[in-house]
């Protein structure tokens, strides 16, 4: 049986509900000084606002070493009534002041998926990253470790693509060379890649596509987001699309700052997409697709 591994335990996918498939409650990066997401009260308020807008699930893509505050997640899930999924994995090297030993990564990722990150809070996905238009040594080593952890557990692999680049290289390495099924790979930030033809090719390979940009609604690639989704739906890829907010800075929060935050996915973007694409397609992106993408027949 396939189950979604949440911070409160494994969950029947039918209970997942409307899902923000890529966001951050907590995040601390060396590249974003002064914009840390490390305030529990602000995280709770953001979740409450998302819940009030109809949201029922949030997948947090914050990986190992970037201030996940995994111990806070069960309490936040209980208080908000929102299912939370935590991540293991590793981001680009530039986000870290200090990195774990690369030869330990596969073991680390597997342990956080099976034994837990802290106090029995187990990760439900592996988040990794490519480099800008290429796979550097760090990305290659991290992807190898992610593939090993996937084969040990069945966990999905979610990938940050810097400015939407290097997604084809990631799929070649993970799927062609390392044997990860494309259906277990989630390609993030593809709305930041202006080449719609390339995105269609990536979709044809069978991976899930995470379109995750409303927190940067002033960016050209994000206000073009509906156009890209319409093209992918028209090409027959509606069943592979996921939507997320990707709130990575304190300024992007809706309750404690001036950003659109998590609720915007449902209060701002969802109505626009429903008018453009129809309710059935949007329900797929927000409910059925994430329930399939994050559900696993766990091997450990």
TrEMBL record:
Zn(2+) 1 binds at residues 22, 24, 127, 246. Binds 2 divalent metal cations per subunit. It comes from the Bacteria. Keywords: Hydrolase, Metal-binding. Pfam families: PTE (PF02126). One of its GO terms (molecular function) is hydrolase activity. The modification N6-carboxylysine is found at residue 127. InterPro entries: Metal_Hydrolase (IPR032466), Phosphotriesterase (IPR001559). Its cofactor is a divalent metal cation. Zn(2+) 2 binds at residues 127, 160, 189. Belongs to the metallo-dependent hydrolases superfamily. Phosphotriesterase family. PANTHER family: PHOSPHOTRIESTERASE-RELATED, PHOSPHOTRIESTERASE-RELATED PROTEIN. This is Phosphotriesterase. It comes from Streptomyces tateyamensis.
């Amino acid at each position: 049986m396939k189950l979604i591994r949440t911070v409160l335990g494994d969950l029947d996918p039918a209970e997942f509900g409307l899902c923000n498939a890529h966001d951050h409650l907590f995040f601390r990066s060396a590249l974003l000084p002064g914009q840390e997401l490390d305030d529990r009260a602000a995280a709770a308020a953001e979740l409450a606002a998302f819940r009030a807008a109809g949201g029922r699930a949030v997948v947090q893509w914050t990986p190992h070493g970037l201030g996940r505050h995994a111990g806070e997640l069960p309490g936040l899930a209980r208080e908000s009534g929102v299912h939370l999924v935590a991540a293991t994995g590793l981001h680009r090297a530039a986000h870290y002041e200090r990195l774990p030993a690369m030869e330990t990564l596969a073991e680390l990722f597997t342990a956080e998926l099976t034994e837990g990150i802290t106090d029995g809070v187990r990760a439900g996905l592996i988040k990794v990253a490519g480099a800008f238009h290429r796979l550097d040594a760090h990305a290659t080593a991290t992807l190898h470790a992610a593939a090993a952890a996937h084969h040990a557990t069945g966990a999905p692999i979610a990938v940050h693509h810097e400015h939407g680049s290097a997604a084809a290289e990631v799929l070649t390495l993970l799927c062609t060379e390392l044997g990860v099924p494309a259906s277990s790979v989630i390609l993030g930030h593809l709305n930041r890649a202006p080449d719609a033809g390339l995105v269609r090719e990536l979709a044809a390979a069978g991976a899930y596509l995470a379109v995750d940009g409303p927190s940067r609604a002033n960016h050209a690639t994000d206000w073009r987001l509906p156009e890209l989704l319409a093209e992918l739906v028209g090409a027959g890829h509606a069943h592979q699309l996921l939507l997320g907010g990707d709130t990575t800075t304190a300024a992007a929060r809706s309750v404690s700052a001036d950003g659109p935050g998590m609720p915007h996915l449902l209060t701002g973007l969802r109505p626009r997409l429903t008018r453009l694409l129809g309710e059935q397609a949007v329900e797929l992106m927000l409910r059925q697709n994430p329930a399939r993408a994050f559900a696993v027949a766990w091997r450990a």
